[in-house]
Amino acid sequence: MSLTRRLVNRLKLKHWALLSALADTPTLNQAAALINVTQPSATKMLADIEQAFGFAIFERHARGMRPTPLGIEVVTYARHTQASLDRFLEDMEVRRRGGHGHLVFGAIMGAAPDLVAAAVADIKRERPRLGVRILGETSDQIGVLLERHEIELAVGRFAGPLDHNKFDFCPLSDEPLRIVVRSGHPLVQAFQQRDHDGLGWDELVRWPWVLQTLTSPARLMLEDQFAQAQVSTPQDVIECSSIFATLQLLQSGDAIAMLPESVVRDHVRASLLATLPVDVGQDMKAFGILTRKNEALSDVATAFVGHLQARAQSKAAQAAAS
Fold first, then answer.
1. Spatial CA neighbour of 241 closest among 226, 263, 219
2. For all residues of the chain together, what is the average pLDDT?
3. DSSP per residue over 175-214, as a string?
4. Hey, what domains does the chain have and what are their CATH numbers?
5. d(CA 200, CA 19)
6. Per-residue b/e over 7-37, b at no fewer than 16 CB within 10 Å?
7. Which of 53, 130, 196, 247 is the most exposed place for a label (fewest CB within 10 A)?
8. pTM score, two decimals?
9. From CA 103, how far away is CA 50, in angstroms rounded?
10. Mind listing the pLDDT tens digit for each residue in 284-317?
């Protein structure tokens, strides 16, 4: 009997759900709890799965289980299949209740206030009952979500040197970055007292900073900026990928952060934050639309991409005219 026929005859949705759960937890007991079965049932299910495939999918260790080389391929496929099934069922439930489908995508924080918000408003005007969910805040986060099939597309950047092998990329817009602090910060006063002489990186790194994680493109670019200025990474650092938490941390202390201009614009206008006169991010590549290679988008996602591109073109035209 062929492998395909064996899998079709023996494996059910619950088996694939178990494999997907085992991709995120090292023990069979925890995986069983995630799919609401007992551990003995999960043990038998895993034995059935390995018998159907004809090879061991996991190696058993004292601290749990680890996928074999072939098992990694199986588990990855199971996780992708489960994520796609979850999105399909959620979409069907929305439609059953009279809605018009579901759109799940990721977006970096710099794109959200302008392009993403406008494009979402556009598609919601066309499809008022469309369900929309936006996940992630940094390119490394949304890259993981996209690879796991937890989102259909993303607005961001390549986060790793090999991402171009997994995703297609269509540029949308630049993302101006600003160095910001709270209004009334001593550095703002120091700049004003110097009759607008610039601030040096050697002075900035002596203050506390709120930084994105090292896996994000913006953080890597900032570290390169430190290197070019021949200064070390600040010693007093909070790593934070949440834009809301970063804004709160800035306003409640003397920390410095590098954030997209679109994110801090309203806070600067309201005199809650102030920008420092430091050039940063000149070499930061444009963000754009990330999709999985060789995978067609749904009609809803295709329509949303069209709105994103139209908004990006409009923004570029306005910038050229100003």
1. 219
2. 86
3. --EEEEEETT-HHHHHHHHTTTPPPPHHHHTTS-EEE--T
4. 3-92 (1.10.10.10), 100-175+286-321 (3.40.190.10), 177-276 (3.40.190.290)
5. 53
6. eeeebeeebbbbbbbbbeeeebeebbeebeb
7. 196
8. 0.68
9. 35
10. 778 999 999 988 898 899 999 999 999 999 888 8
- What is the token pair recorded at 218? 């913006």
Per-residue pLDDT tens over the stretch 210-265: 999 888 888 999 999 999 999 999 999 999 988 889 999 999 999 999 998 888 99
215-248 per-residue burial string, b: 16 or more CB within 10 A, e: under 16: bbbbbbbbeebeeeeebeebeeeeebbebeebbe
- Per-residue pLDDT reduced to its tens digit, 269-285: 999 999 998 888 666 77
First to last CA, the chain: 69
Question: Rounded to whole angstroms, how far apart are CA atoms 203 and 21?
Answer: 48
Q: Is the pLDDT of residue 195 over 60?
A: no
Residue 287 φ/ψ, nearest 5 degrees: -90, 165
Cα–Cα separations (whole angstroms), residue 7 to 1, 10, 48: 10, 5, 10
Residue with tokens 């994103």, as numbered in its chain: 308
Closest C-alpha among 263, 267, 247 to residue 255: 247
> What digits encode the pLDDT tens for the residues 1-54?
567 776 767 778 888 888 888 887 878 888 888 888 888 888 898 888 888 888
Tell me how crowded residue 86 is: count the other CB atoms within 10 A of its CB: 15
Dist CA 75 CA 50 (whole Å): 12
